[in-house]
């Protein structure tokens, strides 16, 4: 009987430790997101990183939209170089629009994405899709 009780407490302790690790990871990502959020394009409306291609350990190509200009930048450890100005018409603002001109709700964006991947969803009446 004491072995069974020890086993139960061991399993519960392990489960509590796993939950604590997940909570700690969640908290750390929230903290890092708040700290770096403004630097990664989230806070600025006039500057946005559109795409990034890592070339090596310390170098990458970055496409940045600044106001109405789209720039291709070479980023290395010690410097940033303007490589080319790109055609801004090729990089429109890609915000899904709802019927009223506002940003579409997340549920609509998710539903459209799942349908594009070929996943059939039940309709609101509870009937299965095609």
Automatic annotation (TrEMBL):
TM region(s), chain numbering: 6-29
Source organism of the structure: Caproicibacterium amylolyticum
GO CC annotations on file: bacterial-type flagellum basal body; plasma membrane
Protein's recorded name: Flagellar protein
Family statement drawn from the similarity comment of this UniProt entry: Belongs to the FliO/MopB family.
Localization (cell): Cell membrane; Bacterial flagellum basal body
Coiled-coil ranges from the UniProt annotation: none
Gene: fliO
BP-aspect Gene Ontology terms: bacterial-type flagellum organization
Main location, first listed in the record: membrane
UniProt keyword annotations, A-Z: Bacterial flagellum, Cell membrane, Cell projection, Cilium, Flagellum, Membrane, Transmembrane, Transmembrane helix
């Amino acid at each position: 009987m004491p072995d069974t009780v020890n086993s139960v407490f061991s399993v519960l302790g392990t489960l509590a430790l796993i939950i604590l690790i997940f909570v700690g990871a969640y908290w750390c990502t929230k903290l890092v997101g708040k700290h770096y959020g403004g630097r990664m394009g989230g806070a600025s409306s006039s500057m946005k990183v559109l795409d990034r291609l890592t070339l090596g350990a310390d170098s990458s190509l970055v496409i940045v939209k600044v106001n109405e200009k789209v720039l291709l930048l070479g980023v290395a450890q010690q410097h940033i170089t303007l490589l080319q100005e790109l055609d801004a018409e090729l990089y429109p603002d890609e915000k899904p629009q709802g019927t009223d001109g506002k940003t579409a709700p997340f549920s609509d964006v998710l539903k459209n994405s799942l349908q594009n991947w070929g996943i059939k969803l039940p309709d609101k009446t509870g009937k299965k899709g095609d």
